[in-house]
TrEMBL record:
It catalyses: UDP-alpha-D-glucuronate = UDP-alpha-D-galacturonate. One of its GO terms (molecular function) is UDP-glucuronate 4-epimerase activity. It holds the Pfam family Epimerase. The lineage of its organism: Eukaryota, Viridiplantae, Streptophyta, Embryophyta, Tracheophyta. This is UDP-glucuronate 4-epimerase. It comes from Cinchona calisaya.
Length: 452
């Protein structure tokens, strides 16, 4: 509308009745009107006709870069422009603001109001439902990207809908969308789980990691630090930040400056970015380093998931071994244990100290390992799956390629135990039994969204 101001100001100078208009004798209009007596009314008609066309053009044209917020949301490889906050409503469906407000409203007196990013992801779905069940208000945000099967994400979204959780389809890089969400619902907390996951995929699409894990995180923190009052932020880092560290078990005090993959590097960058926003703006931030989370509704790119798929199909599976036939092991952590750690981090977090983007005092900054502290060799993982599936796997042992994977992970969880009361209780065989039961039920049933 700012483009119309010069035209509208000119129209304001015209009289409401044509007969009272007396042009300046020095004006071009006056000089032209003296050329011929009949020219003045013709020019008047043509002027209004041209003016009408100009106004019509301006109203019908899309907003330009100078008059609109041209944030681009990446959604499953497709791009969607949100020019202004005013057009967000139609793009998200009817009455979306009311749905956000209702979903964010706690049902218990002590309940929190939480924005969960990456809500239709594996951890995001479980965390969101657990929060909702205990009486918190929850709004999800996810771009439903196509890194893995979007059908699985849509099925998770059906679970969230049944639980009364509204998920906004959008990208964390979309500043206009985030701003509108925070204006609509007064979130007390943000559980930031949105990220480009996977170690190996970074070799194919490195920019997706920068887009989500760095740019997206900064964009979210920018909104949070300017919100008044500032929300508390809990976010997902990764055990991958320990990289080439050879000291075990991995402790939060260990060095994390030798990442083995781009994914790990972006997560390490996220920790440093989080510290900066905590230090400058007073945001209360807690980072959680997840260790190989598994369970029902998991990620298809994880070894336990595609091993199950290939074993059932009679396909050969590749088992990595380290240098000199060294054992490759992972600290597998069951999803229910991780969820408890996430909720504990939210509940024990202290309030942010900033206001209007200005720090008022020292703010809380924490980093915790969330693992099972019991590394299991990959060969043992396969043996358990063979037992549960009652199928002998076709195995091929190969040298671990240089793709960013590390030979082992092992969490020291003493800090989380002390400060969060975190205590994992599910061993790998018990957890895999639950996963296999879900997997067979999900892929063997036409009504996939009913299996929880």
């Amino acid at each position: 509308m700012t483009q119309l101001k010069p035209i509208l100001s000119h129209l304001d100078a015209l009289p409401s009745t044509p007969g009272k208009f007396k042009p300046d004798k020095t004006s071009p209009y006056h000089r032209l009107s003296r050329l011929h007596p009949s020219l003045s009314p013709r020019l008047t008609l043509w002027s209004f006709f041209v003016l009408f066309l100009v106004i019509l053009f301006l109203f019908c044209s899309p907003p330009s870069a100078t008059t609109a917020v041209s944030n681009t949301a990446v959604n499953g490889g497709k791009r969607r422009n949100l020019h202004t906050a005013a057009v967000l409503g139609p793009s998200l469906g009817p009455n979306w603001e009311n749905r956000v407000w209702a979903s964010a409203r706690p049902t218990s007196k002590a309940g929190l109001s939480i924005l969960v990013t990456g809500a239709v992801g594996f951890v995001g779905t479980h965390v969101s439902i657990s929060l909702k069940k205990r009486g918190d208000g929850v709004v999800g945000l996810d771009n439903f990207n196509s890194y893995y099967d979007t059908g699985l994400k849509k099925a998770r979204n059906s679970l969230l809908q049944k639980a009364g959780i509204f998920v906004v389809e959008g990208d964390i890089n979309d500043a206009a969308l985030l701003q509108k969400l925070f204006e609509t619902a007064k979130f007390t907390h943000v559980m930031h789980l949105a990220a480009q996951a996977g170690v190996r995929y970074a070799m194919k699409n490195p920019m997706s990691y920068i887009h989500s894990n760095v740019n997206g995180f900064v964009n979210l923190l920018e909104i949070c630090k300017s919100t008044n009052p500032q929300p508390i932020v809990v976010w997902a880092s990764s055990s991958s930040v320990y990289g080439l560290n050879s000291k075990v078990p991995f402790s939060e005090k260990d060095r994390t400056d030798q990442p083995a993959s781009l994914y790990a590097a972006t997560k390490k960058a996220g920790e440093e970015i989080a510290h900066t926003y905590n230090h400058i703006y007073g945001l209360s931030i807690t980072g959680l380093r997840f260790f190989t989370v598994y369970g029902p509704w998991g990620r298809p790119d994880m070894a336990y998931y595609f091993f199950t798929k290939d074993i059932l199909r009679g396909k050969e599976i590749k088992i990595y071994e380290g240098v000199d036939h060294g054992t490759v092991a992972r600290d597998f952590t069951y999803i229910d244990d991780v969820v408890k750690g996430c909720l504990a981090a939210l509940d024990t977090a202290k309030k942010s100290t900033g206001s209007g983007g200005k720090k008022r005092g020292a703010a809380q900054f924490r980093i915790y390992n969330l693992g099972n502290t019991t590394p299991v060799p990959i060969g043992r993982l396969v043996s358990i799956l063979e037992k549960l599936l009652m199928v002998k796997a076709k195995k091929k042992v190969i040298q671990m390629p240089r793709n960013g994977d590390v030979p082992f992970t092992h969490a020291n969880i003493s800090l989380a135990q002390k400060e969060l009361g975190y205590k994992p209780t599910t061993d790998l065989e018990t957890g895999l039994k639950k996963f296999v039961k879900w997997y067979v039920g999900y892929y063997g049933s036409k009504k996939k969204s009913s299996a929880w």
